[in-house]
Amino acid sequence: MRAISQDALGGPDVLKTVEVDKPVPGPTEVLVRVEAAGLNPTDWKTRATGGILRMAPPFVLGYDVSGVVEGSGVGQALYKPGDEVFGMLRYPQGHGAFAEYVTAPSRHFVRKPEGVDHVQAAALPLAALTAWQALVDVAGLRAGRRVLIHAAAGGVGHLAVQIAKARGAYVIGTASAAKHDFLRGLGADELVDYRTTDFAEVVRDVDVVLETIGGDYGTRSLRTMREGGTIVSLALSLLDPGLHARAAELGIRSEAILVEPDQAAMRALAALVEAGRLRAEIAAALPLAEAAKAHELGETNRTTGKIVLTVPH
User: Fold this and answer.
1) To which H or E segment does residue 108 belong?
2) In CA terms, which of 30, 63, 223, 270 is 20 to 30 Å from 23?
């Protein structure tokens, strides 16, 4: 089968199309014919540095999958050949979605909502699970709470805005002014242009912060929060080492997370999709062979929403 691989760490130019063996599903696994695969910042960071596991090439990147079940290992009883599914491969060690086929435990997938295509479905899993696990599982976000979402127009951010609104929260987002109308359309209640305004000077009484950027954003965000609030950080490699201590001094809970496959959360997300309350913004959909171009686009950090690779068969 065809896959996108690399023999060295480096820029997008290290990515190349290769022929590799088609995977064979193990016990309780499914073989999925990939129709589309989502691209996330972790993909281009791993391509350049080896990621948090410091992986050595060659490897095939990609965690987000939407496709069609073609086969199963022994003991798998959830899906039959022809079922359309979407889900996330185990992070960070379960990469391999930038290929024609993948195998993974059956419970890492759920059925694709009928109302969306594979491109839309492939854009959701890692980013939407990240937002759900941070806001719902860790922070316990519920109706009436005030949440601050940084990089609100980004891949995780714009899905987090929709999830927070579906939970009944009041949503404040940071984004450039050009993206404010887009975010208002998703339901954001209040927006701050980070290029012209220091959010820490104008935002107050926040219960939950979703910190996606790193650097001093976490520590500065503490100034916006109520005692008893929760800040959840995603940018582990950029985490301010003083954040946890300062948060504790203020009576604020501080957590840092990695996303995990989660079938229950995926079903909840699929239900939001089917109810018309969650939809990924597609910044670009490019064929698998143009993976390097997709990485270049993602690394500009100026896209709105998600980039997806389509996989022709």
Assistant:
1) none
2) 270
Question: d(Cα 208, Cα 138) in Å, to the nearest integer?
Answer: 10
pLDDT tens digits along 232-250: 999 776 677 889 999 999 9
Q: How many CB atoms lie within 10 A of CB 88?
A: 28
> What is the amino acid identity at position 83?
D
Identify each DSSP E strand in 55-193 by its residue range.
59-60, 64-72, 84-88, 101-105, 109-111, 146-149, 170-174, 190-192
Contact (CB, 8 A) for 34 and 65: yes
What angle do helix axes 155-166 and 125-132 make, rounded to 10 degrees? Answer: 50
- Which helix (H) or strand (E) segment holds residue 178: the answer is none
Model confidence pLDDT, tens digit, residues 51-62: 888 999 999 999
3-class SS at 213? coil
Q: Is residue 211 within a helix (H) or strand (E), and if so which, with residue range?
A: strand 206-211
